[in-house]
């Protein structure tokens, strides 16, 4: 059985912050994306070796000050990272990878034996207070999803994890955050609730006209971590048609860390039993802290496929979990965007 494996959250290596504590916008050379023996966990040769057919590459922006200087740095950083993604394919992996904007392009690229790369954003911080920037990121760079927050509240919403400041800023979404979700729906950008607070996540489900998803989170009933989704949140995803993409982050899989591939599969099976196989997928968070025993880098992705096959899931269920569910959600976002353009 041929299975399209889609990893929905991988970071690209980048310096975190400047000496002044601002998000760094200086470009990092991406030459090592073409190397089999590289420190980064995701490279094209590693993906080829592991049978990973597609990956969502995240332009990640660490949370910084909510002022003009911080927002300008975040805006510059997000664009620099997305431009680096554009440049690295023709420069370093021509003929082996393709930057894709649609679900159909992902399928066609995988069928051609190449690795599909989908540009996405982690943290809505670069938007500042300007919802129109969603259109820019979607049209100019082909961004297909954005997490509303990262670790810390921004102008859009409350985060699940705060390192300083109050526990809540808005009690979920801000008025601006609700407006941004409307823009995301109009431009085919999926609403990603990983990193969002519980209130933010539940309000996003109600606010969005396209099902929301969590690109890299796990199950709170199995591991009580604030970044994980509880049963009520899973039920809300089911009701809305959304997804949770279980992630290979040890502390999210097992309290205290040390999560393994067996733990990962148990989180997948929990979601299937709770809300159905059509609401779960896979992600690694490689090069953003992810990597567990049995799935340490993209070259070991075939270990995950084998582990899922050993659970007794049938071929259609395996296809759904490994990538079919994510493609279906992308298509829903594309359909909504088309409707808005009529």
From TrEMBL:
UniProt-listed Gene3D superfamilies: Metal-dependent hydrolases
| InterPro entries according to UniProt | Metal_Hydrolase, Pept_M19
Any single Pfam family the record assigns to this protein: Peptidase_M19
PANTHER family attached to this UniProt entry: DIPEPTIDASE, MICROSOMAL DIPEPTIDASE
Protein name according to UniProt: Dipeptidase
- Organism source for this protein? Bombella pluederhausensis
